[in-house]
């Protein structure tokens, strides 16, 4: 084998690798991440059109039916769930149990307190083979399950 043949084969191989890289980059661009956020707006008791001068005034105002803020994102077989809710003892365990009933396997979870009365829960889960909901259905069902947990 002479040097010209070896160099020619190396150039062909490099071109093949460049084509594979282009293919993988195109596939990565085509993958989409779906996201849905379910937010129940709080309603002020009394004057609904009240104006507040600061966040402290808003956060200390009386609310009717404080419900959670739930966000979910699907990517391939993974689900990222973010919940901001009222702080309650034992709630993180209950919500993880509820999530597992939707044919999801919890891979990781993080619970942080926010202020004195709020929790921020982040959960990463893997879809089981039986999981067959759209992202909107999942968030709606999770929100319904949340109401029964409270």
Automatic annotation (TrEMBL):
One of its GO terms (biological process) is regulation of primary metabolic process. GO terms for cellular component: nucleus. Gene3D superfamilies: Helix-loop-helix DNA-binding domain. Residues 7-34 form a coiled coil. Transmembrane segments: none annotated. It is found in: Nucleus. Residues 76-137 form the Plant bHLH transcription factor ACT-like domain. Its main location: nucleus. The keyword Transcription applies. One of its GO terms (molecular function) is protein dimerization activity. It comes from the Eukaryota. Keywords: Coiled coil, DNA-binding, Nucleus, Transcription, Transcription regulation. This is Plant bHLH transcription factor ACT-like domain-containing protein.
């Amino acid at each position: 084998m002479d040097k010209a043949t070896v160099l020619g084969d190396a150039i062909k191989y490099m071109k093949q690798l460049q084509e594979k890289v282009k293919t993988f980059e195109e596939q990565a661009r085509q993958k989409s991440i779906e996201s849905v956020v379910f937010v129940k707006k709080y309603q002020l008791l009394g004057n609904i059109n009240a104006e507040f001068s600061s966040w402290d005034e808003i956060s200390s105002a009386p609310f009717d039916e404080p419900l959670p803020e739930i966000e979910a994102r699907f990517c391939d077989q993974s689900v990222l769930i973010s919940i901001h809710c009222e702080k309650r003892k034992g709630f993180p365990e209950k919500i993880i149990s509820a999530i597992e009933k939707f044919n999801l396997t919890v891979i990781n979870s993080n619970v942080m307190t926010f202020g004195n009365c709020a929790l921020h829960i982040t959960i990463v889960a893997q879809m089981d083979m039986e999981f067959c909901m759209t992202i909107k259905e999942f968030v709606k069902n999770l929100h319904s399950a949340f109401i029964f947990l409270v």
